[in-house]
Design goal:
about 30% helix, binds magnesium ion, four-stranded antiparallel sheet, binds adenosine-5'-triphosphate, Rossmann fold, six-stranded mixed sheet, alpha/beta, single chain
Length: about 260
């Protein structure tokens, strides 16, 4: 199996501090990873590297076979091969565009603009992705009027629009109510199990948000890897407790996960 993502000794240093500290991690084709770690651990920074928007200070990052910062790698060719849905993205998108336009513009690598002639086939694809995310009723709604959950689902549809080989999701379920979270987990689970779906890396704070079909976990704390491997092996109470710095018990219930703090003695 080929590598979708390979980081070797990657560090990101800002103001003398390593936000990502000598991370070596690889994602192979067919794997779907969850990144867990406390606030400020470096999860979003890692996704910025994986999306080629941030270059490591030291070490090498190879994404879909292209090594960042080498003469043969053109990030402008690489970026359309990567789908990103994160919190930062929503702010960049025009609030007045419709949901359909918001998804469609991704096909043209733009965050704004409706002047282009859009191909019929692209519109059909945009509608199909929105349908898949349960957003059919909202296609003509202005993006700026959506609820948090509706916005998140739109951003995932948008990230899928370029047919990415790698899909990066930064806290896709943050801010959703229980029903919204369960709906999203179900949809992500369906995507994760789809053999032609892209490789996925999802950042989350809650093991409850790990959809069935996800295979591996990366745990980071203060920029360093604490555990990396198959969920069944590495998502343990011990690792999670070390990661978040408090005693936790993690359990697998059917094909889902839950975690809670140990009661005070
Ligand atoms: N440009 C920068 N200069 C200095 N520090 C930065 C810079 N960008 C991020 N940081 C710091 O790097 C650390 C890691 O940030 P990052 O956003 O990757 O964390 P995170 O794991 O995604 O956290 P959260 O769970 O809160 O989203 C944080 O302490 C943040 O304040
Ligand atoms: Mg973050």
């Amino acid at each position: 199996m080929s590598d979708v993502l390979e980081l070797q000794d990657v560090s990101v240093v800002r103001e003398g501090r390593a936000l990502v500290d000598q991370v070596s991690w690889s994602v192979k084709e067919g794997e779907r990873w969850v990144i867990l770690g406390p606030n400020g651990a470096g999860k979003t920074t890692l996704l910025h590297i994986a999306s080629s928007y941030l270059f490591p200070s030291t070490g090498t990052a190879t994404i879909l076979g292209e090594t960042l910062g080498t003469p043969g790698t053109d990030v402008f060719e690489l970026r359309p091969r990567i789908g990103i849905a994160g919190n930062g993205m929503a702010d960049k998108l025009p609030k007045k565009q419709t949901v359909l336009q918001t998804v469609l513009t991704a096909a043209y690598g733009m965050t704004a603009g409706w002047q282009e002639e859009y191909e019929e086939i692209d519109e059909q694809r945009a509608r199909a992705f929105l349908d898949r995310l349960g957003m059919s009723e909202f296609v003509d709604r202005r993006f700026g009027t959506l609820s948090e959950g509706e916005r998140k689902r739109t951003l995932i549809a948008r990230a899928l629009m370029t047919d990415p080989e790698l899909l990066l999701l930064d806290e896709p379920a943050a801010g959703l109510d229980l029903g919204g979270r369960e709906d999203l987990v179900r949809r992500l689970g369906r995507l994760a199990r789809d053999p032609i779906a892209p490789s996925m890396v999802m950042v989350t704070h809650h093991v409850e948000e790990i959809a069935p079909g996800f295979t591996h976990v990366l745990m980071i704390r203060q920029g360093k890897i604490l555990a990396a491997g198959p969920l069944e092996l590495d998502l343990t109470s011990r690792n999670l407790s070390l990661c978040f710095g408090l005693p936790l018990v993690v359990e697998q219930v059917g094909d889902r996960w839950t975690a809670q703090g140990l009661p005070m003695a």
